[in-house]
Amino acid sequence: MYQVGRPRRDAPAHFQTLNQGARFAREGSRIHDLANSDRSQDDEATGLCLCVLTCLASTGYAADYTATGTVSALHSEDSSRRAESTWFSLAGVDSLGTCKASTDGHVVFLLADDKEGRRMFEIALASKASGAPLKISVDDTVTGASGFCYVTAME
């Protein structure tokens, strides 16, 4: 009987080849195990780093903000002449997330040029006419080319 791992000198050539193949297979298996153990440690470290980075980065991302105030300015013009043509500002709202303020110091809120935007404009107009406070919501990452924030909800 022949022993796997150490070829006998008096063994036929094909048995010696089989023994060498078995030795290479064992060494290859050990190398594979070492590579996989290193890879699993690298995968764990990479996963941990990604988790930490995601947690840190998520604090700097978008947030929904609300503001309440009376309408201090309300502007509308033909949208075919100028983009971002409908906007308003609220008295006392000088900062809101990363939304940009105008030269007078109040945050400018844009209204979309669609059915929802027209409906919001009517609410803002009624609020301005009556002097009633207006509550709005914005997502500070939804901005126009000017950097002013679009209103997402209004009441």
**Proportion of strand residues:** 15-25%
Give the number of domains.
Answer: 2
Structural class: alpha+beta
Order of helices and strands: HEEEEHEE
Per CATH, the architecture of the largest domain is Beta Barrel
Q: What spatial form do the alpha-carbon principal axes imply?
A: elongated
Radius of gyration: 34 Å
Unreliable runs: 55-59
Strand order, sheet with most strands? 1-5-6-4-3-2
In the CATH scheme, what's the topology name of the largest domain?
Answer: OB fold (Dihydrolipoamide Acetyltransferase, E2P)
* Average pLDDT: 76
Q: Helical segment tally? A: 2
How far is the N terminus from the C terminus?
A: 91 Å
CATH class of the largest domain: Mainly Beta
Helix content: 40-55%
Number of strands: 6
Q: Could you list some keywords that capture this structure?
A:
OB fold (Dihydrolipoamide Acetyltransferase, E2P); 155 residues; alpha+beta; 6 strands; 6-stranded mixed β-sheet
Description of the molecule:
The chain has 2 domains: 61 residues; 91 residues, OB fold (Dihydrolipoamide Acetyltransferase, E2P), CATH 2.40.50. Helices cover 40% and strands 22% of the residues. It contains 2 helices and 6 strands, in the order H-E-E-E-E-H-E-E. A 6-stranded mixed sheet has the order 1-5-6-4-3-2, covered by helices on one side. Strand 5 and strand 6 form a beta hairpin.
Summarize the structure.
With 155 residues, the chain is α+β, with helices and mostly antiparallel strands.
